[in-house]
Sequence to fold (412 residues):
Amino acid sequence: MRKRTNTWMPLLAVAAILPLSGCDEVLSLDVEAPGRIADDDLNSQRSISGLVAGMSYDLTQAIDGAYQDLALASGDLWHSGSYDFGTYPRGILLQEPEDWDGEYGSMQQARWVAENGIARIQEFYAPDLFAKDPDVARAYLLAGFSNRLLGEVQCESTIDGGPVVARTEHFNRAVDQFTRAIEIGSAAGNGNVVTAAYGGRASVRAWTGAWAEAAADAAQVPVDFSYDAVFSTTAGAVANDLVDETTDRREHTVFNTIWDDVTDDPRVPWRIVLDQAGQIEKGQDGETDFYQQRKFLDEDTDIPLTKGTEALMLRAEAALRAGDLAGMTGHLNAARDFYGMDPISTPASNADAWEVMRMERGATLWLEGRRLWDLHRWKQDGGVVADPYAADRDTCFPISDEEARVNPNIGG
Fold:
């Protein structure tokens, strides 16, 4: 399995990385000499935007590290390259936890930096100002997405060197953090953060079984809304590595996935690449047909964390779970209309409805790192809900070998 190096960046270092979060403000701190910023100099209102920029950076880095693995593990892409990725496309995820060291570390870093950054700000910031600061609202939002990522990906997890916890611990934390983002963002007048927090909370409320509340949250998100993980090709930033691996390097292909017979769907854009002789180009392995994804074309292309069409998918699934097939179809068609697609008819049966629901959600969120969790939760539900694709596959990742070795609370 290919190894990625993910270096743990201290909170002081990430605080200085401003351009990576889309923030236009410049951090200015009173320090006696250039170089490393003293810890105490961060205990200032002027440092908050920098601290939050660091949270954004770490979340994007975690996403970039994990999303290729998630695309292969969930069947969004197939491996066609030179890396030793053989087990993930076949749904074998649990045998070699050492292969997950970098990804697990990066995801936990994103969570820790956000949660501890919030605690730090709360220590030095006046409570009345803390409760209406737009950067604080954004910090809670990023903490929520960091926890959602861990909850959706991990079979089980740990918190700061503690004992093993169920993935629901991350979902519960995310519910609370998104709620705080809504409260503080509303007080600060930061509508973008508030809408994103409703979208994030809608998803994790659904994952905890609160589907009616999830649908109510999702209704707050306009169909054209998107809140993204920010990628950039600026020096020191996080570039969207999936682009290079699926274009210039031809490491991953749409060939041999459930999507390779889905054509003319704007949600799942791909093309067959031909060589100079008019034959299908092969992947980096020299053997596998290379079908190129066309959703992300530039390395500074952002990846949605929540969006209006996902909110409609949640509302559709909530309706389906309540037995309202017509309501489900209405929400699906609202999303299809946004993409310029023809409407679909109401399915004739519950089994047919679930088949439609799975495909519509999968297409809407294609290559956004969300499908593995869908396969897992539907598999747990069983019956007509379960996706047949997941039947003999692992659908979550283990606690990393590195964590197990250094954490005394994990039995070996």
